[in-house]
Amino acid sequence: MKITKLYYLLPLFLLVMMGTIDAKDVVDPNSQSSRRLNFVVSTKQKKFDAAPFSFQLQARIMRLFHKKELHLIIARSTEEAVNEIITILKKKNATIGNLWFDSHGHWQRRRSLFEVGEEEFNYQTIRDSVLTLHLQKLAAYCDTNTKVGIGSCYGGASYTVPAIENFPAQRMNGDSLMIGVSKLFNNATVYACESFVLTGPAIMNAGYALCGAPLRKKFKDPIYVPVWEKLGEWNCYSGKTGSFESRVSVSLDPDGSIYVKGKNYLALKRNKGKLPKKLSAFRKGNYNLAYLYQSI
Amino acid sequence: MKKITIIILFVAGTSLHAQNPVLNGNKPVYRIRLTTINDNRLEGLLLEIKDSSVLIYPGKRKDWKNKIHYSAAEFGFSSIKDIRLKKKNGTWRGLIIGGGIGTAVFAGSLLIPNRMEKNHHAVYTFFAIPIGLITGAIVGSTSRKKFHINSSEPTFHEFQNSMR
After folding, report:
1. Second CATH level (architecture) for the domain B21-87+144-162
2. Better-scored residue on pLDDT, A296 or B54
3. Testing the interface with A: which of B36, B41, B54 to mutate, by most A Cβ within 10 A?
4. For A101-124, how does the pLDDT look when each residue is reduced to its tens digit (9 = 90+)?
5. For chain B, first and last CA: distance in Å?
């Protein structure tokens, strides 16, 4: 689930503008190759959805200032997205520097995933050569220096969802998904979150806007404890070395490149000691089991 | 003649037998909030009350209307702690009943004018109907039938009988 705070819509523009000024100092020099472009892939919504709307709006604003590097792809399917990306890459004779998939995660499906349109990619479907037919075309434009971000909640979750009523405990297999994505994109480096991914204000400001916890009551159920315990924690899989690194928090730069923060979100001064207090207030029954039945 | 009577009785009997008290035609009447013995919650639409379990559609009325297919959830009495039911259109029914009572009060004040002073009459006229409507709507929207099953079979059967 991708979560949005809507209260910031008015000062959003100002914050983003400030972000463009501040973030110039913290851009990773490795991703600044002139022949590398950054892509943000987001799904075209049929109905209004606050999270992708917010993300797309912020990416559009950032694109005004980083037209050379940042490209926002809003597509209904991978075919549409991939065709658009390849057209841009061919036109500019470039390769992919950063590729960010903006998507919802679905806790009720009890597996790590990301979606483009109605196509779901999880640890099983990512290995299917038919389902990933269009994404495979991007491999030619990727290498081990390419960074891929799975921007869905629980996209890189490696824990097990606790058993509840008729549903047994199940592993999320986010690590397998990350390996699959890395292989698909020519051994690229893949980043994915263990916990929630928020679309707060100034998301492309190299800050902690992607990290945090949602306010809704349904997330304050013991079933979500593994997610809360790993707030703001991202995993990194390097296709080059074939190894996992438990990274600290990840962010997006104003030009759309993936930026690894120096400190974990939970280690920040403002968040210290808050988690145990919050976890102790969790109650059974806040989560509606109907969501689990809906995903069968 | 005898044959016709038998046929009528048979048809009536089968139709009565097939009638599901929690369905109005093809639409579920009740919204259910079930608390399991482990304190987990499930909200949906009540599809059927069986001899020892309840069958629930795990979606909203809107989903049902849009024919979104979800697998039904079945809960045996042994895993049920509480059941709360809310009937369809409770708010509208409350509005109508409250409005009716308000109108009756207003009409009563018109019918017996001598018993009231003029300003009292004006007050009743002004407030009776809207107060009736608002109170009715609040009561209608918040009223729920609550059943404590607590994994007990007799209590479940009581619930089952009360729904017939």
Report:
1. Roll (2.30)
2. B54
3. B41
4. 999 999 999 999 999 999 999 999
5. 33
pLDDT in the model for residue A134: 94
B163's CB contacts (< 8 A; 6+ apart) are B21, B22, B49
Could you tell me the end-to-end alpha-carbon distance of chain A, in angstroms, rounded to an integer? 17
Position A6 pLDDT exceeds 80: no
pTM attached to this predicted model: 0.79
| Cβ B40 vs Cβ A218: under 8 Å | no
What is the residue extent of each domain of chain A? Answer: 2-294
List all residues 6 or more positions away from A38 whose beta carbon is below 8 Å from its beta carbon: A31, A69, A70, A71, A96, A97, A98, A99, A100, A255, A256, A257
Residue A182's H or E segment, with its range, is: helix A174-184
* Cα distances (angstroms) measured from residue B84 to each of B29, B30, B47: 13, 9, 14
Q: Which residues pair with A257 in a beta bridge?
A: none
Burial A94-126 (b: 16+ CB within 10 A, else e): bbbbbbbbbbbbbbbbbbbbbbbbebbbbbebb
Candidate from A285, A291, A294 with C-beta closest to B39: A285
Tell me the per-residue pLDDT of A221-244, one tens digit each, with 9 for 90 and over: 999 999 999 998 999 999 999 999
The dihedral of CA A78, A79, A80, A82: what is its sign?
positive
Nearest CA to A206 among A11, A2, A31? Answer: A31
- Whats the size of chain B, residue-wise? 164
Residue B20's Cβ-side half-sphere holds a number of Cα atoms within 13 Å equal to 16
Q: Which residue in B35, B39, B58 is closest to A290 by CB distance? A: B58
Q: Using 50, 70 and 90 to split pLDDT, how confident is the model at B119?
A: low
Q: At what angle do helices B118-142 and B90-111 cross, to 10 degrees?
A: 160
Q: Output the pLDDT for position A18.
A: 47
| Residue of chain A minimizing CA distance to B40 | A285
Tokens 């809107």 correspond to B62
| Chain A residue with Cα closest to B56 | A290
Interface test with A, best of B34, B38, B40 (most A CBs within 10 A): B40
Cα–Cα distance for residue pair A245/A165, rounded to 1 Å: 34
CB atoms B70 and A294 under 8 Å: yes
Q: Buried b vs exposed e over A178-191: b needs ≥16 C-beta within 10 Å?
A: bbbbbbbbbbbbbb
Number of residues in chain A: 296
Domain boundaries, chain B: 21-87+144-162, 91-138
Alpha-carbon distance A97 to A25, whole Å? 19
Q: Which residue has the tokens 């499906």?
A: A109
